[in-house]
Design goal:
Blueprint lengths: L1 H19 L6 H21 L7 H27 L4 H10 L9 H9 L4 H27 L7 H9 L2 H11 L7 H11 L2 H12 L9 H26 L4 H10 L5 H9 L4 H26 L1
Helix pairs in contact: 1-5, 1-10, 2-8, 2-9, 2-10, 3-4, 3-6, 3-11, 3-12, 4-6, 4-13, 4-14, 6-7, 6-13, 11-12, 11-14, 13-14
């Protein structure tokens, strides 16, 4: 229960600070950078070595990519049916596809399933969502916006120099290694900052403006992201006969809120910025209900 109180309180604090203009406008970026450069790499180095290579390790990766692929097809079909503009289609191809697998996934799944679920959360995030963000996300932003000039070299460099990815590579070589207690405590202290830091940053970035003309694409995006995506994940797990902790984590991750970074990329690329922010903001709040229902259904 205390984990959910922390989640809601941290988001509320961030939103309140934003409304009162207490922090600078750069505060969300600074907090996110701390999480990306320090907190998340520490958690990866602490948790990934605890994994052992097995089919369970591959489940989150397979589910992540198949869910994103099928969801992207559904977004394209919906955009054609409803005659969405190129900008709105590009926005939905980002915020309705990329899941908030770390900033929301880590605290929520830690609350529901405990620390034992975190290695699978990190595999889903780093080998699924993050690589998709770096490659797919930059491609979509480039394709749907004339503002972006993205090359294969830029994408590759971005992936290879991303601190959590570097930590993941190092952690994979350390699988099975037992750290000195002092190192474990230091990594644990840094990794424990990910939840409050990330969620306050979420609160600082929440936007709730939604004009009437945005209701249709807004509904399509959250319908696919919060309802259809986890159903796809459940169907895939049933199809392959997966019924374990890795599969439960994968289903829950598929049903997480839209990724904040995806909304930021959409806004920076000029892809319906107001709509993108609203989908992310409302999606985070609605996901507290939908993930709760989802967890009860699959358990």
């Amino acid at each position: 229960m205390e984990n959910f109180v922390l989640i809601l309180l941290a988001i509320t604090i961030g939103y309140g600070i934003n409304r009162l203009n207490i922090f600078s406008k750069d505060a969300p970026a600074i907090l996110n950078q701390f999480v990306i450069y320090i907190s998340l790499p520490s958690m990866i180095l602490l948790q990934i070595p605890k994994l052992t290579f097995s089919m369970d390790t591959l489940i989150p990766i397979i589910i992540a990519w198949l869910v994103m692929f099928i969801s992207a097809i559904l977004v394209l079909i919906s955009s054609k049916i409803f005659s969405f503009s190129k900008e709105i289609t590009g926005s939905l191809m980002l915020v309705a596809i990329l899941t908030n697998s770390s900033f929301m996934g880590i605290p929520i799944l830690n609350a529901y399933m405990g620390e034992s679920a975190l290695p699978y959360v990190l595999v889903y995030d780093q080998l699924g969502t993050f690589i998709a963000l770096a490659i797919y996300g930059t491609f979509i932003a480039s394709y749907y916006s004339s503002k972006s000039q993205i090359t294969f070299k830029v994408i590759t460099l971005k992936v290879l120099t991303f601190p959590p990815f570097i930590s993941l590579v190092a952690a994979l070589f350390l699988m099975g290694v037992e750290f000195n207690p002092i190192i474990s405590k230091v990594l644990g202290s840094f990794s424990s900052t990910i939840v409050p830091m990330a969620l306050v940053a979420v609160g600082l970035q929440l936007q709730f403006k939604l004009p009437r003309e945005d209701i249709k694409p807004f509904s399509v995006a959250l319908g696919i992201k919060l309802i259809i995506a986890p159903i796809i994940a459940i169907a895939l797990c049933k199809l392959f006969g997966w019924d374990n902790q890795a599969s439960i984590v994968s289903i829950m991750e598929a049903g997480m809120a839209p990724m904040i970074t995806a909304g930021a990329i959409a806004s920076m690329a000029g892809l319906a910025p107001r709509l993108s922010s609203a989908i992310v903001g409302y999606g985070i709040l609605i996901s507290f209900i939908t993930t709760g229902i989802l967890f009860k259904l699959i358990n």
